Fold this sequence. Notes:
The chain has helices at residues 6-21, 27-42, 47-69, 74-99, 112-127, 137-145, 158-166, 173-206, 214-244, 262-268, 271-282, 292-310, 314-331, 342-361, 365-374, 391-411, 416-421, 425-442. The chain has 459 residues and is mainly α. The protein has two domains: 6-171, no CATH class; 175-286 and 337-458, no CATH class. The longest helix has 34 residues, at 173-206. The protein is globular.
Amino acid sequence: MSYTAPAYFLMIAVLSVFYYLVPKQHRYLVLLAGSMLFYYLVSAGRTVLILFFLLTAAFAFGTGIVLERSNDKKRFILVIGWTVLLAPLLMNRARDFLLRGQWNSWVLPVGISFYTMQLCAYLSDIAGSRITAQKHFPKFLLFTSFFPQIIQGPIPRYAQLSRQLEEGHDFDEQQVTKGMYLVLGGLFLKYMIADHAAPVVSAVFENYASFAGRYIWMAGILYSIQLYADFLSCTTMSQGVSMMFGIRLADNFDHPYFSVSIRDFWRRWHISLSSWLRDYVYIPLGGSRKGTFRKYVNLCVTFLVSGLWHGGAVQYLVWGLYHAGLQIAESILPERYSRLPVILRILVTDLLVMIGWFFFRAQGLRAAAVMILGLFRRSGAVSWSELGTDGYDMAVLAVSCLILLWAGLRQRKTSLSNELVKKPLAVRWAVCLCLIFAILIFGAYGSGFDPQDFIYGGF
């Protein structure tokens, strides 16, 4: 089951009915049942993976209680807890490094990258006396498995999410309506932008030696757009589904391609991951408190961790160090750089980010280097079919990107879902129907298309 499957939306409809019918004090059980059903389906019923997930949750639950009751061994218990939780993920990354994907029989539980960080943060917050340990295992299991975000984030903090999950919420028509708008918006981002860009990106990145010049530029720009639209789509849909149950998930993106620096970009891109790395890696290492050199070392270590989290390959580590190096370079730039026109600084930042994405997407470090050098080579003409698309689909993508740009500029002032819910009923229906028909008629799916899974689901 995926987040765009009809069965997923049917499950949400059924859960919603049960959620608002049962007594408020038991509504968390409906969410728990839905979360476990979803996890069973998305794991294809593989009992070993489901048991592994349940044992991991039970271990974190017990460790949290022990941590809270301990007075003088918190650090030791926390290290043990982190080690056990991180071991499967680190072993998988080590396997990827050593075998380079040649052995694929080792299958990890779905969402392990996300719930591992979630549980590590939970234990650290208990050790730091920022929260108290949950003593009710079903409620803790719901926090660990909450279905709208377990596969691809955002990565929630216990203090932000637990109370919302545990307390029953009254039916709020406006909230449910806003949630539906967000789901529609997420589907638009996925089918009208991300999946329309995907064929060109795949054609160029997977046959990089055949392309140069403007086609590498096209692939780089479209991959930047694809990533953003895909990530924003899954986050928006997660927020929308959660809102239907009265639960608010934190924003994960804040218009990152409007950033004026790389540091600003990382305050806006995948916010839950960036803030996790800051709070549980960078600051514990000493942050900027121990001098400039140590600050730079801590920054490099933090971004190496980010690269390792994304995948067990050298290119991800290079991508992490690339961003660390850019932030270090920015910190020593002359002050007059900050006085340059904002639009110029945005364009420079977006260009540097795009170059970094070559390391992220290319088929290895050598391929990334060849593609970056290919940006500055002349190219001959190729047909649309060689790029895996046609003029019609590129026109749909261009118009959709303009709509996304308009929405991004508009949302810097106000939330579109909040604005739409205040409009007359006829206007709201017209907007929704236009979105639905646009997705059904122009969306990248069906015959001739390769359905694309959400990119972050692969991490």
